[in-house]
Amino acid sequence: MNYDETIAWLYEQLPMFQRKGPAQYRIDLSRTVSLCKALGHPERQFPCIHVAGTNGKGSVCHAVSAALRAGAQSGLKVGLHTSPHLWDPRERICIDGRMISEARLVNFVAEHQKLWAELKPSFFELMFALAMVVFSEEQVDVAVIETGMGGRLDSTNVVRPVVTAITSIGLDHEQFLGSDLRSIAAEKAGILKDGIPCVVGIMPPEARSVILKHSLYCGVEIHDPVAANPSESEPQWIAQTRGISLKILELLGEETRVLSGFDFKASRARAVLDGTPSDWGLRGRWEWVGPPDSSAQPWALVDCAHNADGLRASLIKLRELGRPLRIVFASVVDKNLTAALELFPKEAQYHFCAADLPRALDPSRLAAQASNHGLTGTVHPATLKKSSVEAAVEAALNARTGDELLVVLGSIFIAGPALEALGAS
Questions:
Q1: How do strand 300-302 and strand 287-289 relate by DSSP bridges?
Q2: Above pLDDT 70, what percent of the chain?
Q3: Which is the most buried residue in 174, 200, 256, 425, by most CB within 10 A?
């Protein structure tokens, strides 16, 4: 099989929560343990940073990876495992900011067909196993590992971290993690390991108390983020990302000694963290799109905030910017939209669409739910020539007037297509 055929096989043959929804999700570590054992336990061959959280874990992983690479001018090899991806599954597995080759993924899938037939892994489990094999074979000096949905029973929880982090706790994926903050915090706290320091972001007291309780059982020292302030055009979560990332870097240098032997300069790392998420390699998160003339105001913003806490943070900052909004919005069928839709401004103009995946919520149904909250707009179904997202973005661009800001929100799965439609992929 070539690369495209291999990806098609992975999507068709393996369970994949991101595409098909809750029925495909596995709350079980046994397959991952069996995979790692069959592959010679590659996850044990390098130190790592393990990051969980309802919101912010992906941004912290990208920020830490970028800061590590910038802080060490040479010699430090950094692996990065994240999910989901925007365009290409290889985005999930990077070394020094570069995706693995197509051949590496194709060969890995082909070489272990008997193992896939025997263990029947999910898409996430297989890609995680590939990441561990690649990081081991490439002898990375440190890997930054983002959990999937949870923590305690997440596939990534077989790693042996030198630092952990829990970025935030909020209501999301309640059908798997629990219906209240304490239950969700308990699942995320499952990544704590005996004696391994953990950085804990800002979160509600009832969630933090659960994590502190677990830390006492494990003999874990809890560290608060470094104080950081956002710029005038940024939401608070970007500053929180910087603060958590800085504390992780401090722990790597002072307590774990992972950075010893490298010419690591904190000033170089800080300079990278002071940049934007795009500077960290993080696409579709508070990403501005605009004319080449930097003196002109950007006319679009792509931000894949999708749950109530993430949307609240983005919408607060959007209101502070004071520009009229034209919002392209999508969601998925298993998301509780009530809390999210209550946050949206009624005066904005809306364009409802759907990602190209089975789990996507039909834009007509989305519009009907939105109307119950006083939000009105245009529905954009897919056509023979255009995807639903492409049709919505193009219509929003054509309808945009004056100082209106076009904002793409609601689903990570429309961020990639939206950036393409905006000519920014």
A1: antiparallel
A2: 93
A3: 200
Name the pTM for this structure.
0.93
Decide: helix, strand or coil at residue 397. helix
Enter the tokens of residue 410.
Answer: 């609601």
Residue 116 and residue 38: Cα distance in Å, rounded? 11
The encoded tokens of residue 395 equal: 């219509």
Q: Give the side-chain half-sphere CA count within 13 A for 249.
A: 29
Helix (H) or strand (E) segment spanning residue 239: helix 236-254
How far, in Å, CA of 247 to CA of 202, rounded? 13
Q: Using CA atoms, how far apart are residues 266 and 273, in angstroms rounded to an integer?
A: 10
pLDDT tens digits along 56-72: 999 999 999 999 999 88
> Residues 135, 95: contact at Cβ < 8 Å?
yes
Instruction: Say whether domain 3-280 belongs to CATH 3.40.1190.10.
Output: yes
Hey, CA dihedral for 308, 158, 138, 123, is it positive or negative?
A: negative
Tokens describing residue 35: 């995979």
pLDDT digits (tens, 9 = 90+) for 255-294: 777 887 788 888 999 999 999 999 999 999 999 998 655 5
Strand order in the sheet with 377-379: 287-289, 300-302, 405-409, 325-329, 349-352, 377-379
Give me the residues paired with residue 198 across strands: 164, 222
pLDDT of residue 296: 65
CB neighbours (10 Å) of residue 329?
26
User: Thinking of the domain 287-421, which architecture would CATH place it in?
Assistant: Alpha-Beta Complex (3.90)
Can you give the residue ranges of every domain in the chain? Answer: 3-280, 287-421
Distance CA 98, CA 79 (A): 9
273 with 283: CB under 8 angstroms? Answer: no
Q: What confidence tier does 22 reach under pLDDT thresholds 50, 70, 90? A: very low
